[in-house]
Amino acid sequence: MNGLAPCAADPDASRGRRVDEPPSRFRNEFQRDRDRIIHSTAFRRLEYKTQVFVNHEGDLYRTRLTHSLEVAQVGRSVARALQLNEDLTEAICLAHDLGHTPFGHAGQHALNDCMRDFGGFEHNLQSLRVVDELEEKYAQFRGLNLTFESREGILKHCATRNARALGDVGRRFIDGTQPGLEAQIANLADEIAYNNHDVDDGLRSGLISQKGLCEVELFGRHHHGARREHPGAHDRIIVYETIRRMIGHVVHDLIGHSAQALAAAAPANIDEVRVAKERYIGMSDDVLRAHRDLKRYLHAELYRHPKVQRMSDTADRTIRWLFAHYLAEPAHMSSESGSPASAAGPDDLARQVADYIAGMTDRFAFGEYERWSGQAASRHS
Q1: How far apart are CA 71 and CA 50, in angstroms?
Q2: Structural domains of the chain, ranges and CATH numbers in brackets
Q3: How confident is the model at residue 338 (pLDDT cuts 50, 70, 90)?
Q4: pLDDT on residue 374
Q5: Residues in Cβ contact with 29 at an 8 Å cutoff, skipping those fewer than 6 apart
Q6: What's the mean pLDDT in 130-140?
Q7: CB 356 within 8 Å of CB 337
Q8: Among 147, 153, 126, residue whose Cα is nearest residue 36
Q9: How far apart are CA 165 and CA 277, in angstroms?
């Protein structure tokens, strides 16, 4: 299998696609998945979707697109070091946020609340829905018709009631089994990427400080090391050096700890990975604790900062207003939202409205609110 570990996902032994297709002459099945994701409409929209700061607040802040690229870079590095499948890992990383709403987590919380009587909304499940149903680029099938392995990795978590409706890809949430190793890598690469780039964006915004972050073990240790080794460097360079060292520290630990776990268990193939009681990809206890301490700091000091909260409140109002409006006036959704809303029942209409809103960029959502309400959303605090 081209030098890969026996427990790596093998594109030649994939569990297949929902609709059979002839193989490509020059690409394996996971490379095809990656390419379909990159060329999807949902992937392009990520450029204008919030990570923490709304897109128009600054050109250098991360968006969902740049976040996804950073996740893919971390994921590929880990997969390569462990002799696992880089192509599959990259595909999962690039697709993991395709279903995210505008306005980051504030948008998801608002849309989930709007959908409470209609089955709820979860961006992870929506990402699978995007690749399975909502992308419309192929004459032979709906969605992107990705392999089972890519779909398995995209679906990081899922309520049991939803898992039952998803067939084979939802089965592990009922049986309590594990995803493949590449999916496990993508999950942790996501956490590593957003923890570190949110530090960078938070410092750039001025909402958190180096002094405050130095009280957090993971940042403080590497910040002091960078200062000691480069005493004359500019503050901004020290921040970059600190973040670079933090990422390296956590990724190296993840690779080393996972390699030990895999060597001890020696799974013979991906099926043995799936039936294992615990996941093989993970960090050591000390690094996991430090990583989670940084995450808690960011939640307390950045994500709940009054400026971020004011933006979140604006996002919440915008999403709720749009949801109620489109339910009452479904014809106001553009034709790209899918089949005619007037032909759908109440639950189907609500889901169609959720699909439409989730697919919006930040600026399109603001524009639609201003267009139909006649009011300008307060975008700046």
Answers
A1: 16
A2: 24-307 (1.10.3210.10), 308-373 (no CATH)
A3: very low
A4: 84
A5: 11, 12, 14, 17, 23, 147
A6: 95
A7: yes
A8: 147
A9: 24
